[in-house]
Amino acid sequence: MCKGLAALPHSCLERAKEIKIKLGILLQKPDSAVDLVIPYNEKPEKPAKAQKPSPDEALQWRDSLDKLLQNDYGLASFKSFLKSEFSEENLEFWVACEDYKKIKSPAKMAEKAKQIYEEFIQTEAPKEVNIDHFTKDITMKNLVEPSLSSFDVAQKRIHALMEKDSLPRFVRTEIYQELIK
To answer: What is the pLDDT of residues 29-79, one digit of tens each?
Structure first.
């Protein structure tokens, strides 16, 4: 920590400027309304590109959201279901976080972190996920210096929400019931 400005003027001031710049990048408002336009897909996504699971495999999804999310067909089916309920933002956030964790470049990581924050976390975001203020604050603090774990707390909260709320509704759908026959 900086004890006094005279003791370490260069390193403290430089560090403060770095933090200010990083926060400024994350908190920038979009330049125009065009940045807020969400593309609308005319045709619904087909969950059929991936191989259809066996009934036994699909049965495991009932008890494990992770198994469903690891299966391409399950993920596509679940996404289609959530879209039909106008609640796909949680899954899209979870997938964005998984993609974020694969980034190696610090510059690309900062760029993707800003994008995820603006799309899902910030108040009034186009696809704002429902997380508590505590989780939002932790996430914002983590984004001062983006790392692979910056979104972990928020992602775990959203995962728990999908497991408790969305998954039970999904397994009662006709589509899922047909898969387990």
So the answer is: 444 333 333 333 333 344 446 789 999 999 999 999 999 999 999 999 999
Cα 93–Cα 99–Cα 33 angle in degrees, nearest 5: 55
Closest CA to 95 of 125, 65, 124: 65
Structural domains of the chain in order of their starting residue, each with its CATH number: 55-180 (1.10.167.10)
- Tokens 């026959």, located at residue: 181
Gap between the Cα atoms of 118 and 133, Å rounded: 16
Token readout for 17 is 């400027």
- 142-180: burial string, b at 16+ Cβ within 10 Å, e else: bbeebeeebbebbbebbbebbeeebbeebbeeeebeebb
pTM of the model: 0.71
| DSSP reduced 3-state for 174 | helix
